Amino acid sequence: MGLPVPPRRVTIIDVARHAQVSTTAVSKVLRNAYGASPEMRAKVRRSIDELGYRPHAGARGLRGQTYTIGVMLPDIRNPFFPEILDGITASLEDTEYQVFLGPGCNGEQAEARVTEAMIDRGMDGIILVAPVSSRAHLERVAASVPTVVVGRQGASPAYDTVADEDYEGAALVVGHLARLGHRRIAHIEHHETDPTRLAEMPNARRADGYRQAMRAHGLAEWIDVVSATYTQEGGYQGAKELLARPRRSTAVFAGADIVAMGVLEAFTEAGLSVPGDISVAGYDNTTFAALGQISLTSVDQAGHEMGGNAVRLLLERITDRRRPSVQVTLSPTLVPRRTTGRPGE
Amino acid sequence: MGLPVPPRRVTIIDVARHAQVSTTAVSKVLRNAYGASPEMRAKVRRSIDELGYRPHAGARGLRGQTYTIGVMLPDIRNPFFPEILDGITASLEDTEYQVFLGPGCNGEQAEARVTEAMIDRGMDGIILVAPVSSRAHLERVAASVPTVVVGRQGASPAYDTVADEDYEGAALVVGHLARLGHRRIAHIEHHETDPTRLAEMPNARRADGYRQAMRAHGLAEWIDVVSATYTQEGGYQGAKELLARPRRSTAVFAGADIVAMGVLEAFTEAGLSVPGDISVAGYDNTTFAALGQISLTSVDQAGHEMGGNAVRLLLERITDRRRPSVQVTLSPTLVPRRTTGRPGE
DNA sequence: TTGAAAGCGCTAACAG
DNA sequence: CTGTTAGCGCTTTCAA
User: Fold this and answer.
1) What are the pLDDT digits (tens) for B56-83?
2) Which among A97, A156, A240, B338 has the fewest CB atoms less than 10 Å away?
3) pLDDT exceeding 70 applies to what percent of chain A?
4) Could you tell me if A81 and A184 lie in one domain?
5) How far is A15 from A28, CA to CA, in rounded Å?
6) Residue A209, CB half-sphere, CA atoms under 13 Å: how many?
7) Do B291 and A232 touch (CB under 8 A)?
């Protein structure tokens, strides 16, 4: 059963016939374009409603726009990204644009596939969140469609960027811990080898920010960085490594909340109390950092604002593709919770 | 600068010219369609590679398919959904189809907007995960595009379904707790009023499954259901309510992991130890249930398999739109962790 | 202000 | 097996 014959879609021709005008007129009304009298607009609008007409985006795209914005998120599991997405959808809610997300990407190859798929579908603009692709690829993408890169530093004339100042975020954590009386503050970073990305990716900047802040607080001699990956397992292993040190740290700054989760697990396993024996801080202020059971001190990146700014820049660029590129940098804030306290309490 | 003039896209005509064949020939090669000699195929493929040609999905969609599958997830924050998504993308990886996600939807209106947007973009098929829309709307959608509904019971001739047997999941939890020696097992449900959805939505079925299982274990007199919402706050409030009861339960079955998180928070606040004083179980086996710090007993829905099945059914239906609808039901499994133990220990 | 007509890139139907 | 032709639904000249 199930209506084997899907009823033919209502097209612009049906609307034109119903309203007794030309398709051109209907098109003008759809796009709020110049050259249609108020009476005609009203008449056309009525027909559109009566017939339940909705324009076919693919067909529109062949000549004009598809009114579609693509968003690429690296990992849908990371609870930080929904914040950005909320900011994006909220800003786009009252426009005609529709957002679609690429599926979780990990690695340059997956990113290439998704970005190409977006371009092939005629999307009017794309927002890339924390992409790992080479700058060359990003610029190639930006050459064929308006693009905004979010959560990654590195200005380019080809695309706009919106990012959090990770140096500052790292400094907030180190400052907070130092103020509590910690000196031996260790850091677990996500290892980065690619030379281009080294300066642009948040993980690298957090590690640098940590080093810089330690020096600024006169704690240079206690700088201790463990290389791992931004995963729970990475945090677990990194914490193990720290525990094996002859002089144990009194605080650990994990480069991401998910890393902090692994750290907490390792400490619990080792019978250490947090923050009694050792303090732990994360980064991203993810949903589970806020869970009462965990209550992790973290850094909030204002994801919502990031998303909102990204949309603003993107719409501007869709309007004027040759305007000079813009870089927006937002300041993170510290969210102290129960995993950090005075040392040796 | 940023290349103010985006280079014209390579079209099928360019490829045809380069390979010295007709556009029809190129089209056939693209679609692996019948009627092209191996030599011609090779020649065309070479030209495609040399020119870096990629077909324009919108244009294809005007006559044939767009090779695009839309997936609607209700809430990107719920860590259960990525599992389904992984199953979907994994099954689609080696096909020409590309997945795009609708942005997080809450409520019927948002769902309507997203499903319509997908149809307007000529998507070849759509997968709706735990939609809250009325059955009528779902059938309207399914009438214009092949559709699979995931995570919601309720067979329809218009679409296929893939769901977990929530009765069974609830029974697993009750059985587990009963076997540990619990009798006073309470349940926190997500309140459902809509009569149509009542029988189809997972939350309602979990509550029913709980009641049924309690009876089956001879614990009918201890049935105790608190109505809340599937949120952390809902769990917190629900737990408060349970604590105010004259006879306290020794175990709580929360309808979802996120609810269990709120429950745990309330119990911690009340100075109760888990599972010493009271056991807690959730549902969905989300990422944070597995976190060492939380270690929540939960029910695993085999999201990956759900996604894989959804894709299989969808591709089948894209091939043959009039084949009778299919319902796939998967069995959940219990994942016992540290939040459940013997009562009164 | 209005509409006729061309064409976006591709596929399907058909003829050779 | 191969190519010609006619659209798909819309926007965009451009002439009236």
Assistant:
1) 999 999 998 999 999 999 888 777 888 8
2) B338
3) 98
4) no
5) 13
6) 26
7) yes
